[in-house]
Amino acid sequence: MKTIFHNRRTWAGPYIVFMVLLVVLPLILIGVYAFTDMSGNFTIQNFVQFFHKTEAVNTFIYSLAIALITTFICLLLGYPAAYIMAMSSFRTPAVMAMLFILPMWINFLLRTIATVELFHMFNLPLGEGALLFGMTYDFLPFMIYPIYNTLQKIDPSLMEASQDLGATRIQTFTRVVLPLSWPGIYSGIIMVFMPTVSTFAISELLTHNKITLFGSLIQRSFGEGGTTMWNYGAALSLIMLIIIGLTSFFGQSNETEVDNQKGGLL
Fold first, then answer.
1. Residue 219 has pLDDT above 90, yes or no
2. What is the C-alpha separation between 127 and 143, in angstroms, rounded?
């Protein structure tokens, strides 16, 4: 009995089943549907159909642009907040952390609906501006916490040594703090970019379906027309997965490079 509880393979069993049923199998099904037609024959027509639809390609490019802008705004707002939380010696970090956590206790759809009502209250138009505001509001904490965790782990003696050697505060920040915080920045960028590039509910609520993102195209392919659009929707999903996978890959490559730079600083 003791051997069973100390055997790591026994505890890994449920996680393997979970991963196979809810991760591996759905990915395989997406790949199968993407490269087959309604009759089950192999085809690449689903991808050809996407690249021949100007509207679909433009929607894809626009979605990437919206995701990049949202990620940049979150980084612009999130890094100073994370820096203040990490470098403060008072109770400010605990208070700010609670302020950022509280909205996340509510479902993001409810938060988005509340944002819509907020715009109605102040007679503000729903459109691209509302979309960027809502996405930034929903995903800003995902930028702040990775950066905050990284900044919090920086050894204060490194900054003290930099100032003892004659560096100004700006030089200490640009040459010590900023390079050492790159892993958190990359993690935050990935955690914000991936959900924003694939979302559809936020855009539909905050623009009243005036703006269509790539996630909406995928959702409509599976939700409309019965099963006739499933193959095309799977192809769109696979394209999205490739983009997300490349983002994660380059993020991990950059983190490895930053770790090497960190070793040089230390």
1. no
2. 24
